């Protein structure tokens, strides 16, 4: 028995079972097979493969297919019908409600109609086998290893149902299957890369083929129908929408102009901590660090973008919905892997996303309407925020986006992209940095000594000091090596076939680069799992994080690399330096910090980081 299945994944499964007795004595149609192959040799030749344009000339082959469908129709009993009213068929009365079954198989085998109705000419099968033998090498390109354990339909999704963080699970799979392997995420094919040299090949030679993003429900419903920069398909809109913040906000020149915003917000937050210490009888304050850092970062980015402060009273509506918004972005949605299940809304995420997106949009639209009403008035001072800049850009008709999208929607989508990119990832990185310092007191002491030398204890930290704080900078680099905010880089999707590490990668394949695994590779890093900031002052001093050293890519690489890297390295050192300079650190129980990882979109701690802060400067310096 030979069983051939023709499948169109995610739609219809059409199965053709062919039973052939292939012994020479019983198989009587070799002459017909020969005719079909001769026809192919005449019209196609033996120097190329068959093209669809050849089919019109292959009369004998098409006749074979018709004979196949006569003998073995895909639906031997046609789909049943039901009468809506009484009728007469072949002289018989048929009442309403009667079901009709038509036996096409029997009709096709009627000896009164067909001569030799059961004469088997299933040469299509042998023809395919023959053609496969002729073109075996060209039709079976070298594929990357496939991870074991896939289940029908859902593929490897069942492996991700536990509490182990996904980057660690994929890291273990890389140890088993190699630095490049494929897996099935429902109906989606994914290529997992855990080696820096292969990652380099993806982001250099194959940067353009992998410039697209896979589609997801969150990016659709929460990302303004894929208008958010990180979610946008590769093309004109993505290029133009990315260009605006890159030039008008994130360039080194523009960031320098906004230095006063960063410094004033950080100093205000440090002062707030000191005021809380003063109110405490112990002159100490317990702070949940991630929440506190998120507040500062959102104050900075919202002030730059919309002239608002996250922690102020007039942003209470934003605060109310922000947590739900960020949480929903990190949810796994079943229909992203199995789109035909979207109508079930498993987990209720679609309903929640639509509700949250609507509430968030009202906030953004309110900001935008306020900016429109104030434009040109005396209320707008010398420093225009980014919303004013974008409104001015769209006044110039030459700056209209190429796809004709609504201007308001595009502005809101870009602002959302910047807030999302800046907030959670920065807070996650600084939280890990503080946790590592608390568990490595010698490193903490060195960082504070450096601050005392280059800043002193008679003033606060300024952004201009950062260039002198070499040790603090490498503390952050080592934190990003061990705990990249996105341990799995934002997925890419191939827009065309390409070759990676000698393997054929079909168009539509999702690319998952395990930065966490790459940055702990013992073949690259000495003592890769240890927190050793000094490594970036000695052997690895020339390794930077701008996407050109592929053994260290916490912000990604290539044309879809995170554009906010400069902003991140303006904000993170300033916040960390100000904290270390202004306060001594301790844990509430003086016990080591629990470094367990959460299973989340960004690389968060499983438990909140509670830190006891004690002022270490003169009280007058906190004003």
TrEMBL record:
Look up and give the organism this protein is from. Answer: Citrus x changshan-huyou
Say which family it is in.
Belongs to the cytochrome P450 family.
Looking up InterPro entries in the UniProt record yields: Cyt_P450 (IPR001128), Cyt_P450_CS (IPR017972), Cyt_P450_E_grp-I (IPR002401), Cyt_P450_sf (IPR036396), Plant_Cytochrome_P450_Monoox (IPR050651)
Gene3D superfamilies from the xrefs? Cytochrome P450
Q: Which UniProt keywords apply?
A: Heme, Iron, Metal-binding, Monooxygenase, Oxidoreductase
The protein's superkingdom reads Eukaryota
**Which residues participate in heme binding?**
562
* GO MF terms, alphabetically ordered: heme binding; iron ion binding; oxidoreductase activity, acting on paired donors, with incorporation or reduction of molecular oxygen, NAD(P)H as one donor, and incorporation of one atom of oxygen
Q: Which CDD domains match?
A: CYP82
Cofactor(s) needed for function:
heme
Specify the protein name: Cytochrome P450
- Metal-binding: is it a keyword of this entry? yes
- Offer one Pfam family short name for this entry: p450
SUPFAM superfamilies named among the record's database cross-references: Cytochrome P450
């Amino acid at each position: 028995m030979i069983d051939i299945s023709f499948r169109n994944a995610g739609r219809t499964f059409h199965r053709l079972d062919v039973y052939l007795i292939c012994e020479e004595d019983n198989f009587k149609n070799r002459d017909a097979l020969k005719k079909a192959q001769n026809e192919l040799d005449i019209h196609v030749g033996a120097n190329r493969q068959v093209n669809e344009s050849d089919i019109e000339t292959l009369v004998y082959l098409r006749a074979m297919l018709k004979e196949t469908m006569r003998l073995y129709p895909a639906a031997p009993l046609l789909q049943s019908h039901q009468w809506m009213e009484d009728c007469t068929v072949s002289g018989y009365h048929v009442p309403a409600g009667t079901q009709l079954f038509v036996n096409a198989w029997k009709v096709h085998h009627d000896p009164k109609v067909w001569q030799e109705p059961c004469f088997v000419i299933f040469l299509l099968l042998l023809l395919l086998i023959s053609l496969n033998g002729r073109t075996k090498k060209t039709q079976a390109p070298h594929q990357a290893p496939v991870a074991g354990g896939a289940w029908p339909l859902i593929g490897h999704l069942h492996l991700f149902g536990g509490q182990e963080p996904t980057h660690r699970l994929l890291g273990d799979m890389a140890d088993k299957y190699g630095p490049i392997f494929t897996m099935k995420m429902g109906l989606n094919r994914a290529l997992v890369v855990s080696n820096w040299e292969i990652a380099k090949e993806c982001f250099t030679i194959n940067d353009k083929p992998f410039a697209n993003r896979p589609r997801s429900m969150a990016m659709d419903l929460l990302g303004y129908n894929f208008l958010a920069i990180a979610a946008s398909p590769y093309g004109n809109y993505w290029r133009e929408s990315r260009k605006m913040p890159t030039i008008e906000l994130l360039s080194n020149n523009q960031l320098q102009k906004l230095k006063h915003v960063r410094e004033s917000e950080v100093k205000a937050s440090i002062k707030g901590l000191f005021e809380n210490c003063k109110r405490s009888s112990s002159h100490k304050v317990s702070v949940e660090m991630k929440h506190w850092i998120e507040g500062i970062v959102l104050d900075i980015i919202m002030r730059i973008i919309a002239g608002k402060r996250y922690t102020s009273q007039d942003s209470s509506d934003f605060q109310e919905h922000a947590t739900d918004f960020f949480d929903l972005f990190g949810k796994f949605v079943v229909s992203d892997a199995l789109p035909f299940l979207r109508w079930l809304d498993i987990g209720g995420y679609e309903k929640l996303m639509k509700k949250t997106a609507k509430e968030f949009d009202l906030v953004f639209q309110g900001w935008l309407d306020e900016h429109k009403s104030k434009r040109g008035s005396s209320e707008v001072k010398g420093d225009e925020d980014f919303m004013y800049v974008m409104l001015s850009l769209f006044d110039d008709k030459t700056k209209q986006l190429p796809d004709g999208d609504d201007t308001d929607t595009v502005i809101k989508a870009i602002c959302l992209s910047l807030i999302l990119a800046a907030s959670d990832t920065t807070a996650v990185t600084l939280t890990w940095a503080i946790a590592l310092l608390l568990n490595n007191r010698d490193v903490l002491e060195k960082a504070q000594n450096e601050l005392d030398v280059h800043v002193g204890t008679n003033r606060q930290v300024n952004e201009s000091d950062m260039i002198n704080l070499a040790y603090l900078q490498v503390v952050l680099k080592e934190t990003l090596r061990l705990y990249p905010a996105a341990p799995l880089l934002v997925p890419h999707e191939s827009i065309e076939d390409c070759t990676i590490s000698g393997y054929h990668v079909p168009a539509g394949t999702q690319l998952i680069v395990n930065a966490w695994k790459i940055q702990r590779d013992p073949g690259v890093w000495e003592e890769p799992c240890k927190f050793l900031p000094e490594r970036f002052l000695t052997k690895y001093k020339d390794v930077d994080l701008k996407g050109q050293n592929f053994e260290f890519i916490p912000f990604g690489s290539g044309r879809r690399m995170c554009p906010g890297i400069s902003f991140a390295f303006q904000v993170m050192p300033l916040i960390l330096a100000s904290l270390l300079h202004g306060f001594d650190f301790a844990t509430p129980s003086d016990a080591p910090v629990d470094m367990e990882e959460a299973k989340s979109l960004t690389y968060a701690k499983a438990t909140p980081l509670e830190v006891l802060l004690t002022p270490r400067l003169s009280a007058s310096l906190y004003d």
